Amino acid sequence: MLTEGLIEEAAHRFALLGDPTRLRILHTLMESGELSVGEVAEASGTSRFNASAHLNRLARGGFVARRQAGTTHYYRVADDRLANVCDWVCDAVKRQARAVVTEGQ
Q1: Per the domain annotation, does 73 fall within a domain?
Q2: CATH code, 64
Q3: What is the pTM of this model?
Q4: Assuming Cys at both sites, which of 50, 79, 100, 101 could form a disulfide with 46, CB separation 3.0 to 4.6 Å?
Q5: Nearest of 14, 37, 13 to residue 25 by alpha carbon
Q6: Taking the chain, what is the end-to-end CA distance rounded to the nearest angstrom?
Q7: What's the average model confidence in pLDDT over 28-32?
Q8: Which phi and psi angles does 65 have, rounded to 5°?
């Protein structure tokens, strides 16, 4: 049974996934594995400061895990099931886009 608290937490996590930059960052980590903040920023096309802020939010939301080696922070996807969620949503978006193109012909 979903309590009100669980519903609120689920909504918060879905909201975290609603940002294109955070999705690019998660995609980068899913494709590349563990990366430093600078590597995430470069691969996802954002600034180091912006990547760091988004990674911190994703870490607080439980999507990514972090470790520190010296002064460098490394991030990785915390739960491999996240890829299933992303695949499900992206597949639905692709199907819908194909349907729109087919209808327009």
Answers
A1: yes
A2: 1.10.10.10
A3: 0.84
A4: 50
A5: 37
A6: 46
A7: 95
A8: -115, 155
Q: Under a CB-based contact definition with an 8 Å cutoff, are residues 4 and 41 in contact?
A: no
More confident call, 98 vs 61:
61
- Asked if 27 contacts 33 with a C-beta cutoff of 8 angstroms, the reply is no
pLDDT value of residue 34: 97
User: SS3 for 32?
Assistant: helix
Q: How far out from the chain centre does Cα 80 lie?
A: 12
Q: Which residue has the tokens 């080696």?
A: 69
Question: What's the pLDDT band for 88 if we cut at 50, 70, 90?
Answer: confident
Answer yes or no: is 98 within a domain.
no
Chain position carrying tokens 């519903």:
7
